[in-house]
Amino acid sequence: MSHRDDYTEKMKQELDTMRANLDVLEARAHEYKEDARHLYQENAEKLRHEFTLASTKFEELKAAGVETWDTMVAEMDRLRDVFGNSYRYFKSQAKWSDPAKK
Asked: What is this structure's pTM?
């Protein structure tokens, strides 16, 4: 496999993980009382938007030519990191850790 193929496969796996994590967060929204549920869903929508941006960039990356590959990789890495940071922050919030407390 080429470096490009390796990177593309790795990024596909990371996007699959991101999608699965987001699906779990969205599924948990019903566990919260209405006020907390609204805030939870709002944050999940922001994460969904970041995921959509990363997915779109991934499709562009797969079609990128040699001359734009490095730039596309840097953009893809940045979008992945933005999603990852937002996801970790969202998960770290104590109010989301136990829906029974809300």
From this structure: 0.77
